[in-house]
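In response to the reviewer comment on reproducibility (Comment 2.3), we provide here a single inverse folding case reported in full, input and output, so that an independent group could reproduce the run without further information from us. The C-alpha cells appear first.
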C-alpha cells in the first residue's frame, strides 16, 4: 500500500509548528516513509537485515496497524520457502518476458512477471 488517508476531527499541532485544520484530510505516504533517509541508511537499497528494518510502515502504524499482517507474513514465508526448496538455484532464474505494472496508484507493484525457474 503506497499511501493512506486520515481526517483530522479537530485542529492538530504538527511537530514543525504548523497546525492541521480540523476537518482536513491528509495523505500519508507510507512508501515514502519507508525510504526516509533520516530513518534508513541507504534507503533505496533493499536490505532486510538492516538494524532498524522493523521500523518500516508497510503494514501501517498504531491503532489501524494491518489486521492481516501476521497472515500476510505467514503466506509469504510459506510461498518463498516452497519456491526456494523446489528451485534453489536463484542465480539461474531468468525473466521470460516484460513485467506488467499494476495500474492502481494505491497498490503499487507488478501484475505479472514471467520467470523461468531453472
Ligand atoms: C502484504 C500484504 C498486506 C499489506 C502490505 C497490508 C497493508 C496494510 C496497511 C498499510 C494498513 C493500514 C492502513 C491505514 O492505516 O490506513 C492495513 C490495514 C488493514 N489490513 Fe492490511 N495489508 C496486507 C494484508 C492484509 C491481509 C491478508 C488482510 C486480511 C486478511 C488485511 C487486513 C487489513 C485490515 C482489516 C486493515 C484495517 C485495520 C484498521 O483499520 O484497524 N491486510 N493493511
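Designed residues, in position order:
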Amino acid at each position: 500500500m503506497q499511501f493512506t488517508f486520515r481526517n483530522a476531527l479537530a485542529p492538530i499541532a504538527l511537530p514543525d509548528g504548523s497546525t492541521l485544520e480540523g476537518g482536513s484530510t491528509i495523505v500519508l505516504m507510507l512508501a515514502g516513509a519507508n525510504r526516509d533517509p533520516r530513518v534508513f541508511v541507504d534507503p533505496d537499497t533493499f536490505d532486510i537485515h538492516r538494524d532498524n528494518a522493523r521500523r518500516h510502515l508497510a503494514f501501517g502504524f498504531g491503532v489501524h496497524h494491518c489486521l492481516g499482517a501476521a497472515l500476510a507474513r505467514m503466506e509469504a514465508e510459506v510461498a518463498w520457502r516452497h519456491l526456494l526448496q523446489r528451485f534453489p538455484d536463484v542465480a539461474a532464474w531468468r525473466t521470460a518476458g516484460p513485467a506488467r505494472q499494476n495500474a492502481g496508484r494505491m497498490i503499487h507493484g507488478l501484475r505479472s512477471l514471467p520467470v523461468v525457474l531453472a
